[in-house]
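[Discussion] Sanity-checking designs against the backbone

I'm trying to build intuition for which residues belong where. Below is a structure token string of 655 positions. I'd appreciate it if someone posts a full sequence so I can compare it with mine line by line.
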């Protein structure tokens, strides 16, 4: 089941062995671009924007809900988010949620809270902790700038509104941000796992997270049984950055490989864009301007601190202050330096020297990098000086401290804003602030798999079936030659709202035998290297685990005087225990001796080609021997046929 149309923020459900497993719960945040920014203090520019009035069918009650800026219409209300589709399957029926990385878990509070969810959630420790930072920051940013009222009527008039509002997908299902209580409640349901740890999921399969190389704690999931293997690859990277490298061997030879989360910037090289960012910051500083870099509280920002500091030092600009502003800045910076086991080997080796794995710990001690919760936090005004470099959120520029800096620096062409997060189209991000004098640069740094790397990885993994979003099989809009192409693989595609049947035919399952029953097994060799034994027991299925237990001993009651001497009916188990299975070839000479001993006389033997026939003249009976069968054709009494059958069976081995 595909519950999300956002390829970078996936949410899928697979039903397997009677279980409902959710793979990721990404939150589509692009919807916030339809709303006006939330400044910390009232913005004269934003409050003076004219109302938008539809050309026809105008509802006076809708006045004030929509504002117009430079030909674009925005909703003047609390930002809202597009949730994974909740009508395809009831969230209360979910058994398990598996999360691959902290960017793909921001819809978790919507799914686990106030929905009747009773299942379990699994993620690695960094995914849980850094995901907490993202969720807490999101709530803080929106709650610190509350709106007096919420606009709703505009959703009834979408057909009257200009693009892109008129094309809003499921606008009536959009929701405002969850509460901090919901965040804490959802995260309390998460169970922490380590890389390569094997977890039994209700006896149906073994779930194993393996390193995906994309960000701290990011993982691909392997779901395996004794006979099937499903791999879920989401947000992976084959580049060498600060996380632990991708584990490819664990993903090989899957029956089904589900792949998603490829790069959102397939036409650019992350290293090239990192170099461009450093160059643009240096040029801005030399022009006596300041640089604003909207960012998330973790991830690529760690690499930016390191690269940018070294670049500015090489350019002779080592006295330029850098500020990291986020409600969770302190926690994020501190936590990143205690995650040695989740880092690349180069970063791990620094821990054993001992040294800080990330250089930002050194920059903090030397005051090259300073962090604050908000621009209004104590001490910021005292330390703040320009020109400087500011890292702060939110990348959408609809809430957070970045809105304040745009208001403060926007009219100066010496200043610049540099976008590194590919989640939001930067021209749409800047739309409500236009006209804007400060320079804008787009340097998307996305280390997840590009199309060439994905095609190469798929060939190396050799899955039986590849399952990918339909969009990946079509040429990319900005690069017609980029798409997933695997001519030698069976590919199944899907899109948002679709339900597809995976070609996974379960033919075998593992059964466990109770030890006391196993001790009674007496194997009989029926051919070279082949042994057989019968087994009589009770098959129990509990939590998807099949087990054969011994039959319960039944106590035979003594017949009462009123019932006479009638024998009790044998149980089904008693009958089964007495069943014998014959095998081998019949020795005709031995059979004739037994027939003579049993009182049969006047026996004639005939050979017709390869077949042998015995004629019992007195009993008007024929016994025909063929390659794999023996026929008793009896024209006399039925008792004669039964007697002959028993004699014949005595000449065979049985078990």
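Best answer:
Here's mine. Compare freely.
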């Amino acid at each position: 089941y595909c519950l999300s149309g956002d390829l970078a923020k996936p949410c899928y459900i697979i039903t397997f062995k009677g279980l409902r497993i959710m793979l990721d719960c990404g939150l589509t945040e692009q919807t916030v671009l339809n709303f006006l920014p939330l400044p910390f203090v009232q913005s004269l520019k934003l409050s003076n924007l004219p109302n938008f009035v539809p050309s026809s069918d105008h509802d006076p009650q809708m006045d004030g809900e929509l504002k117009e800026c430079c030909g674009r219409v925005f909703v003047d209300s609390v930002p809202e988010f597009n949730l994974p589709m909740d009508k395809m399957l009831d969230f209360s029926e979910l058994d398990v949620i598996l999360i691959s990385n902290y960017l793909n878990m921001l819809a978790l509070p919507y799914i686990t809270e106030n929905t009747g969810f009773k299942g379990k959630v699994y993620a690695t420790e960094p995914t849980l902790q850094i995901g907490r930072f993202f969720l807490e920051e999101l709530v803080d940013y929106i709650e610190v700038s509350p709106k007096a009222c919420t606009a709703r009527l505009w959703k009834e008039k979408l057909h009257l509104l200009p693009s892109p509002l008129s094309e809003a997908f499921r606008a009536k299902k959009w929701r405002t941000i969850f509460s901090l209580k919901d965040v804490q409640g959802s995260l309390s349901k998460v169970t922490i796992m380590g890389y390569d740890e094997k977890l039994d999921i209700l006896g149906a399969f073994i779930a194993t997270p393996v390193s995906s190389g994309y960000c701290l704690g990011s993982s691909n999931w392997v779901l395996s049984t004794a006979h099937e293997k499903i791999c879920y690859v989401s947000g992976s990277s084959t580049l060498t950055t600060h996380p632990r490298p991708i584990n490819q061997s664990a993903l090989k030879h899957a029956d089904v490989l589900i792949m998603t989360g490829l790069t959102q910037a397939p036409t650019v090289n992350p290293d090239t864009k990192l170099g461009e960012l450093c160059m643009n910051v240096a040029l801005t500083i030399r022009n006596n301007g300041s640089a604003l870099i909207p960012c998330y509280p973790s991830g690529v920002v760690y690499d930016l601190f390191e690269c940018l500091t070294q670049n500015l030092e090489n350019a002779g600009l080592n006295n330029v202050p850098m500020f990291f502003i986020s409600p969770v800045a302190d926690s994020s910076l501190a936590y990143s330096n205690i995650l040695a086991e989740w880092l690349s080997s180069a970063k791990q080796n620094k821990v054993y020297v001992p040294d800080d794995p990330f250089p930002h710990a050194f920059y903090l001690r030397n005051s090259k990098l300073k962090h604050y919760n908000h621009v209004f936090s104590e001490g910021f005004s005292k330390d703040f000086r320009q020109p400087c470099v500011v890292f702060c959120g939110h990348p959408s520029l609809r809430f957070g401290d970045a809105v304040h800096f745009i208001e403060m620096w926007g009219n100066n062409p010496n200043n610049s804003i540099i976008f590194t997060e590919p989640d939001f189209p930067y021209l749409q991000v800047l739309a409500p602030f236009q006209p804007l004098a400060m320079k804008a640069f787009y340097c998307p740094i996305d280390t997840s798999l590009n199309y060439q790397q994905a095609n190469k990885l798929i060939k190396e993994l050799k899955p039986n079936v590849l399952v990918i979003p339909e969009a990946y099989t079509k040429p990319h809009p900005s690069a017609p030659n980029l798409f997933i192409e695997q001519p030698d693989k069976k590919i199944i595609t899907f899109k948002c709202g679709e339900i597809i049947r995976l070609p996974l035919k379960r033919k075998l399952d593992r059964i466990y035998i109770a030890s006391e029953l196993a001790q009674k097994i007496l194997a009989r060799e029926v051919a070279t290297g082949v042994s057989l034994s019968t087994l009589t027991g009770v098959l129990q299925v509990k939590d998807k685990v099949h087990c054969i237990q011994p039959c319960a001993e039944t106590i035979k009651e003594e017949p009462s005087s009123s019932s006479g001497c009638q024998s009790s009916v044998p149980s089904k188990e008693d009958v089964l225990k007495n069943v014998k299975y014959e095998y081998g070839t019949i020795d005709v000479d031995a059979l004739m001796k037994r027939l003579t001993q049993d009182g049969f006389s006047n026996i004639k033997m005939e050979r017709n080609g390869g077949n042998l026939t015995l004629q019992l003249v007195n009993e008007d009976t024929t016994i025909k021997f063929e390659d794999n069968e023996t026929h008793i054709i009896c024209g006399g009494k039925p008792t004669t046929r039964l007697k002959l059958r028993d004699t014949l069976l005595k000449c065979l081995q049985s078990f």
